[in-house]
TrEMBL record:
It is a multi-pass membrane protein. The keyword Transmembrane applies. InterPro entries: Cation/H_exchanger_TM (IPR006153), Na+/solute_symporter_sf (IPR038770), UspA (IPR006016). Keywords: Antiport, Ion transport, Membrane, Transmembrane, Transmembrane helix, Transport. Belongs to the monovalent cation:proton antiporter 2 (CPA2) transporter (TC 2.A.37) family. This is Sodium:proton antiporter. It holds the Pfam family Na_H_Exchanger. Residues 14-374 form the Cation/H+ exchanger transmembrane domain. Residues 407-538, 546-670 form the UspA domain. It comes from the Bacteria. Coiled coil: none annotated. It comes from Brasilonema octagenarum UFV-OR1. The keyword Phosphoprotein does not apply. The lineage of its organism: Bacteria, Bacillati, Cyanobacteriota, Cyanophyceae, Nostocales. The chain crosses the membrane at residues 6-23, 30-49, 55-75, 87-105, 111-134, 146-170, 182-201, 213-233, 261-281, 293-314, 326-347, 356-374.
Length: 701
């Protein structure tokens, strides 16, 4: 027992490292694995973890606070501003109707008014699990989607405030005066958090500049002071944590500090919260509560029906079509972050029973699976702003300044792939004019005079001398570079940024699966951290021998146009034929197929009139098989990938790219863009358009 805190922490670390990986390998959400692990290791299983442990209580409470903070941090305030009136309107619908429905369910099963209203508040919130899907499909600018995203702010804040009032009433003597006092305190407290910490955050970040460590500590301080302040005025700490997320949302943006803050929560504290939640589940009691199916069924039907009614009401009021209505319904369906947090608070306070806790867990499992599945089927048909019509010629190249010469960095490490990589870069350079920078990264040693380091540098120089010869052979300017850095990934990203690279061309690594998840993958890390697009290549033949290229396109977005631009440059250098492939569902109407063909033809005629491009639209319910079948007659397939770290609770339905690459028989190029690349490029152009350097502020400089 004297080793108890260390043992518990070691068990938790082992669980949150291994269990999600195993479940995701079988296409199951990792958070379900964490819940099951909690059941297996808890008082109703192997008794290895104890819910009464002070260590576990502390870590779980931090995870609970962190979960709600990340939920607030993930809300896009700019999108909310675009359609705030309609977002508030739909937010009101999808808050009040589920609230009323949940209250009725509570009363039907014998709960008091206070507990029933709390059950209703559990129905009212929602988690945007399907955000990665609508982002990948390029339909975020559809008004119905933007309105639903904005409504999340209203529903989450509303449900948390109802929770705060219900718990306060349960814990103390209720009176009109005490209720008014609580509400007034909430208003003042919310204003202090939202406006005070926002101003303070801007000032602190402006003064500390690049001191990321201090900025990280400041954000943590904001989170826990906000949580503490909430408890001081008599409400739950998760209310303060959520408001803190909204307050610093704009302050930290999407930079490295946000990455660090979210990373710490997603890999440590939030998984521990889910494990602790699993400790509360009594399997016999869970089976018993599920077997008495009426309460669980009422919770499921009530939630799904009320969210559907709210989406239908929005359709009528704002005149959306049926497809938009179904998408709004599916986006507002999943109940994870705020729902689980509020349920645990209500359960600990004695307001909710074990039956409600079990019913909400079932609700989470069902809606977290059903919502994204429906979104994946309904969202592809949404009509959105034609982003290709807004794209200027400058958006089709990877440069802040269109007159800038193209710089392509080529990391060289494997002599067997070096020739093809240099040749690929040379084909692009000859077409666009610029330079190739072969890069050899040597991992640093503690002692700069160590024989091992000297040997690595010599090996790097041999590779670079070969690259220079290849550059002369292909007729392009080559500037070889040796870099000593802490690791391969750091070396590639740092050197590319210093060289102001427009593109990185690198070979395909062999580390995949669980090994890659445990120990990391160079490609994944470069894609995530790079400042510019990355072309990851697996070339089975010389690039100059490629005569037919297949480009699968899911939706017409600026990202898709840039992929076609990359292919067009490569194809013109090689006189290759390009096929743009769009795969739609079998049930897609002929009118929709004809519309997609016309849009693809318009894209080609407008931006790539000189290229030999074919348009192909296939109806198939199996995307992977359709692409594999079409690739059999091609020399190269170019796929697009945008790196995005998944938050805890997000459900990965499939990894299409991995399946295609594993089975495809021809050469492959995966063109990946770093997160926020297009936003940063747009901001850079705005700065360039300033009339003179003296008009730039210090912050812009």
């Amino acid at each position: 027992m004297h080793l108890e805190p260390i043992v518990s922490f070691a068990i938790l670390l082992t669980v949150i490292l291994i269990v999600p990986l195993l479940f995701e390998r079988f296409k199951l959400p990792g958070l379900i694995g964490l819940l099951i692990a909690g059941v297996a290791l808890g008082p109703h299983g192997l008794h290895l973890l104890n819910t009464e442990s002070e260590t576990l209580k502390l870590l779980s409470d931090i995870g609970l606070v962190y979960l709600m903070f990340v939920a607030g941090l993930g809300i896009d305030m700019e999108q909310f501003e675009q359609t705030k009136h309609r977002s508030i309107g739909f937010g009101t619908f999808t808050f009040l109707l589920p609230l009323i429905t949940g209250t009725i369910v509570g009363r039907m099963f014998g709960f008091g008014w206070n507990a029933s209203v709390l059950i209703g508040s559990l129905f009212a919130s929602h988690t945007l699990l399907a955000y990665p899907i609508i982002s990948r499909l390029g339909v975020i600018k559809n008004e119905a989607v933007t309105v639903t995203i904005g409504a999340t702010i209203f529903t989450d804040i509303g449900s948390l405030l109802v929770l705060a009032v219900c718990v306060a009433i349960h814990q103390g003597a209720f009176s009109t005066f005490s209720l008014m006092k609580l509400l007034l305190g909430l208003v003042i407290y919310s204003a202090v958090i939202l406006f005070g910490f926002k101003w303070l955050g801007h000032e602190f970040f402006r003064r500390t500049r690049d001191e990321q460590g201090n900025q990280f500590l400041f954000i943590l301080m904001v989170v826990f002071i906000s949580a503490l302040g909430a408890e001081v005025i008599g409400v739950e700490k998760i209310v303060g944590a959520f408001l803190a997320g909204l307050a610093v949302n704009e302050v930290i943006g999407s930079g490295p500090v946000k990455e660090k803050v979210v990373f710490v929560g997603n890999v440590l504290f939030i998984p521990i919260f889910f494990v602790d939640l699993g400790l509360l589940i009594d399997i016999p009691g869970f089976i018993k509560s599920i077997s008495s199916v009426w309460l669980t069924l009422a919770i499921l039907v009530g939630l799904i029906g009320s969210k559907g009614a709210a989406a239908l009401l929005a359709k009528v009021v704002y005149r959306y079509n049926w497809q938009e209505m179904i998408t709004m319904w599916s986006l507002s369906l999943p109940q994870v972050a705020a729902t689980l947090a509020a349920t645990l608070v209500g359960y600990r306070a004695g307001l909710l029973t074990e039956g409600i806790l079990n019913g909400v867990i079932v609700l989470m499992m069902v809606t977290a699976t059903l919502g994204p599945l429906i979104t994946a089927r309904s969202a592809p048909g949404l009509i959105t702003t034609d982003t290709t019509s807004e794209a200027s010629e400058s958006t089709l190249v990877w440069k802040n300044d269109p007159s800038q010469a193209l710089t392509v960095v080529v990391p060289v490490r494997n002599p067997e792939t070096e020739r093809n990589l240099i040749e690929m870069a040379a084909l692009l350079i000859r077409r666009e004019s610029g330079r190739v920078v072969p890069l050899a990264v040597t991992p640093a040693h503690i002692h700069m005079d160590s024989p091992e380091l000297e040997n690595d540098i010599q090996q790097s120089k041999i590779l670079l001398s070969k690259a220079v010869e290849l550059g002369r052979e292909f007729g392009v300017e080559v500037e070889p570079l040796v870099r000593i850095d802490q690791g391969i990934v750091h070396g590639i990203n740092h050197a590319s940024r210093e060289q102001d690279a427009n593109l990185i061309v690198m070979g395909w690594g062999s580390t995949t699966g669980i090994r890659a998840r445990l120990f990391g993958n160079v490609i994944d890390s470069v894609l995530w951290a790079s400042h510019c697009p990355v072309a990851v290549t697996r070339l089975l033949d010389s690039p100059s021998n490629i005569r037919s290229i297949l480009v699968p396109i899911e939706n017409l977005t600026q990202e898709a146009v840039r992929v076609v631009r990359f292919v067009e440059i490569f194809a013109q250098a090689n006189q290759a034929e390009v096929t743009l492939l769009h795969v739609c569902a079998r049930r897609t109407s002929p009118a929709r197929v004809a519309w997609m063909e016309s849009q693809l033809n318009l894209l080609v005629s407008k931006y790539f009139p000189q290229s030999h491009t074919n348009i192909k639209v296939l109806a198939s319910d199996n995307l992977v098989n359709a692409i594999l079948k079409a690739s059999k007659s091609c020399d190269l397939v170019v796929l697009r990938s945008r790196r995005r770290r998944l938050n805890i609770g997000e459900v990965a339905l499939s990894d299409v790219t991995t399946e295609i690459v594993r089975q495809i028989q021809c050469s492959v190029v995966l063109l990946g863009e770093p997160q926020g690349y297009q936003d940063n490029l747009s901001k850079a152009r705005e700065v360039v358009k300033k009339s003179s350097p003296e008009n730039l502020t210090k912050q812009e400089i």
